[in-house]
Sequence to fold (824 residues):
Amino acid sequence: MKIVDVAVTPIAFRDPPLLNAAGVHEPWALRTIVEVVTDEGLTGLGETYGDLDHLVHVRAAAKELVGLDVYHQNAVYAAVTRSVGADVVVDRHGLIGAATHEKTVDRVYSPFEVACLDILGKAAGRPVVDLLGGRVRDAVPYSAYLFYKWPGDDPYGAALDPAGLVAQARAMIDRYGFQSIKLKGGVFPPEQEVAGILALREAFPGLPLRIDPNAVWTVDTSIRVGHELDGVLEYLEDPTPGIDGMATVAARVPMPLATNMCVVTHEHLPEAIAKRAVQVLLIDHHYWGGLVRAAHVATLCATFGLELSMHSNSHLGISLAAMTHLAAATSVITHACDTHTPWQNGQDVVAPGALRFVNGAVPVPEGPGLGVELDRDALAVMHEQYEKCGVRTRDDGGYMRSFKPDWKRPVW
Amino acid sequence: MKIVDVAVTPIAFRDPPLLNAAGVHEPWALRTIVEVVTDEGLTGLGETYGDLDHLVHVRAAAKELVGLDVYHQNAVYAAVTRSVGADVVVDRHGLIGAATHEKTVDRVYSPFEVACLDILGKAAGRPVVDLLGGRVRDAVPYSAYLFYKWPGDDPYGAALDPAGLVAQARAMIDRYGFQSIKLKGGVFPPEQEVAGILALREAFPGLPLRIDPNAVWTVDTSIRVGHELDGVLEYLEDPTPGIDGMATVAARVPMPLATNMCVVTHEHLPEAIAKRAVQVLLIDHHYWGGLVRAAHVATLCATFGLELSMHSNSHLGISLAAMTHLAAATSVITHACDTHTPWQNGQDVVAPGALRFVNGAVPVPEGPGLGVELDRDALAVMHEQYEKCGVRTRDDGGYMRSFKPDWKRPVW
Fold:
């Protein structure tokens, strides 16, 4: 089952003005769609980041895969590794963790692996979850992912204070049924965000709550906030930068710490575990090298007593399907996963119907492979948007400075 | 693809009088052969231990698997877990490491997982190595596994001194082409075994050497021997019992320590890694929960800088095929694997031809699934041998005492 063609298509879709520690989301979010085609005529889909540095590598790697067998993932990984060479792609916006060579390879490899699993599932007439050991849950719970935000062309309106957050949560939960809540913080001084969390606690007394300031709090601030939110948070996500900082905070706050920033590749795991820096890893197949490699990492975490949740960047339905298959097969993911799906407000490259939310959870797609079909018209429109929008690398800070020229990433 | 039947057949085959720290191999070695049959008529093979305590669990678990889907390994594992209940099966002969509940479950699950992978490979027309990511090597190197031994009904004769070991090694290498050597030690006082290793070093100057006294040396003895064999050993395997003892030795000897005794299940890994007790893990899918779970453990070891080799008990061709597929797909296994195959002297439950040694390595079987076919006549003969031989649980010590009534497990 040989790969005979790989199409790589960058796309752009509308994104609301979501605020975070790095600035504000630009009007266009970027992704890259990968289509792997085999000599038997099967096609598999993958989805990854759209930033140009990354896209260049994905395109280069795609050329190296023609002729390889879909089953031979070790050979595909080796080809990607050779293609990437010694390069390290840095996430300039600073929201998704440290950059390393291994992470660079794993990020480039991931969409191809997902596409190959899509093909193998189609060939076997089986959903991808079955290639990962079969489902341990029929639907994967996701969290309501709240953002402070400016008003935009979306159904949620502005959210710049506790009341705005509560209204946003209520609208999102009404629509999707989420049963836990994550707040992207790091936007306002910590006391304002603590007030936001407490307002959410009061409005949704039964729902687990998390806050993620993307490591813009000092160690002292993190510890103070940790105590202020004692008994309120399910976990505190990336309050402060670095493994040492997280370890200091972890030893002195009452709740677990989670991360998708200080532990993002294998070389971080030994130190973070030795220092007890984190208690929850937010796994993400987009940078942990695809679904199978992410499953290996999940086993490692479970062996060392780390709990698992799942990280999300702005994404579309191919990624949501992949995330759902992975989480459905991985018993040690015990926290609701993150997703940006509500913020895409129905925009997608996959045909409607395969993915839906029921009480905040996505039922595992039933069809073979990922269970989603590419909507070629939507892909063409989004690719045209990419060509025209002018955005080539996510730059939340630059966009923020177009409104507030003296803005800089905060440290509280 | 539902399981409609599972056959569990205990067998016995002739075993030479191989000496070890637990006594001497009885004339019959026991294994259990598992055949999983699906509603589509495909059959998969698995092989595991034959000790009665284990066999009882394998038989009980087999009944629980009917109706499950071959792809749904998480469900198969859950069914085995329920079937085992709270039981812990202890390896009474004390050669293959600590007993835990998780290890008990993983041991019972393993042959079913291998059989299901055999089926999935056959269904896809693919070798099992492809289900594990595809080959990173075309053939898997094994080591010449030397034993001190009494004369027996085998081609190797006695080996009770350095000259006997060298002759055994030469005969085995002539026949199989092995390019590394492992000596099962713990039989004679350490100085005699050091002399044996030094004789092997002189006779085979280019070949990596290992010795495994099965943890019958004290910490002080282990350190002394470690220094005496500085520059001679590839690694020193299980010189002394327990993670703490191994850690003390590891800190004071010049070569890596390997284990299949103090780290045999997930709960041992964090402590052993934190204490730097071992540098090489001898993986074994028979007690690490099958091929996929063993591959997860291999990733974990690589993340923490542990090297990998592979452990062996007396086994036949189904296990050799499974071991070969796993090692062929696992790049982080960098040492030659152990196998008892030469000691079975051609006895097997699989039809000849699929497995062979070329320069000490087994080429990955090319056929679908494991690539081996059950020889039903051989199975029937070996099952009859099981019924008649009277051995139900391996007892090297009891057999040794039938010759030397006052024999007991040594401590040097």
Chain A has a mean pLDDT of 97. The longest strand of chain A covers residues 3-14.
